[in-house]
Amino acid sequence: FNGLITLREQYPNIPVGVVSGSDTVEVVAQVMSLGAQGFIPKVSQTREIAQAIVDIIGGKKWLPEGMEEELEKVDDELKVLLQRFRELTPKQIQVLSYLRAGLMNKQIAHEMNVTEATIKAHISAILRKLEINTRTQAVLLMDKLQLS
């Protein structure tokens, strides 16, 4: 989801539609909470994809048939989690991805070409924004939301 977050930050007025092979309600809810105007499953028919693109470019929200109702069923806890993740910066999400991969602070700092203190600051901000206490909890939340 890093690309979507970065795109929305750099070009907030451009309508964005996401095409994905994963069309679970959790993934669609995450995509929409991150500012996409539409979600198009990869298995969609050509005519449906074309209509989705027209609608999204025209400023309309577009979801596959029946998905709107499914999103309404998403429980309040999941909605709160999605909102909290939306507050993370692209760099913080990148740090989370490295944490999920099992890297230590020093390794993450090397990968991102920053100091270990910067990584510690990112992790502190992540924990604060997600309202959790440990790195493990952050990784478990990513897994729960099916974030990669």
From TrEMBL:
Signal peptide: none annotated. Residues 1-57 form the Response regulatory domain. GO terms for molecular function: DNA binding. InterPro entries: CheY-like_superfamily (IPR011006), EvgA-like (IPR051015), Sig_transdc_resp-reg_C-effctor (IPR016032), Sig_transdc_resp-reg_receiver (IPR001789), Tscrpt_reg_LuxR_C (IPR000792). Keywords: DNA-binding. The lineage of its organism: unclassified sequences, metagenomes, ecological metagenomes. It comes from marine metagenome. GO terms for biological process: phosphorelay signal transduction system; regulation of DNA-templated transcription. It holds the Pfam family GerE. This is HTH luxR-type domain-containing protein. The keyword Nucleotidyltransferase does not apply. Residues 81-146 form the HTH luxR-type domain.
